[in-house]
Amino acid sequence: MRPVKVATLVSMYVQPAHRRGGLGARLVAQFSAWAKEAGAELAEVTAYSSNADAIRFYERNGFASQSVTLQTAL
């Protein structure tokens, strides 16, 4: 098994007044192009499970859920 290079989109926020105009999609496309040029084979992003809008956005832009992290308060 060989290691896979992964690019992580750590944080992205588009102000509500600028949503639905394609800005977020353009930012993701630019990130993906940069990551591919840098040698990444996969791109990943995280979103809170309660943030359905973000999850839908990333799914529309080619991302798919791969795992779920479960937490409990201590």
Description:
- The chain is α+β, with helices and mostly antiparallel strands.
- It has one domain (6-60).
- Helices cover 32% and strands 11% of the residues.
- A two-stranded parallel ribbon has the order 1-2.
- The longest helix is centred in the middle third of the chain and has 15 residues, at 23-37.
- The radius of gyration is 14 Å and the shape is flat.
- It starts with 5 loop residues before the first strand and ends in a 14-residue tail after the last helix.
Oligomeric state: single chain
Our estimate of the beta-strand percent is: 5-15%
How would you sum up the major sheet?
Answer: 2 strands, parallel
Separation, N- and C-terminal Cα atoms: 37 Å
**Uncertain segments:** none
Task: Name the overall outline.
Answer: flat
Number of helices: 2
Radius of gyration: 14 Å
* Backbone structural class: alpha+beta
Q: Mean pLDDT, nearest integer?
A: 95
Order of strands across the biggest sheet? 1-2
DSSP, total strands: 2
In N-to-C order, the SSE pattern is EHEH
- Provide the helix percentage: 25-40%
Write down the domain tally.
1
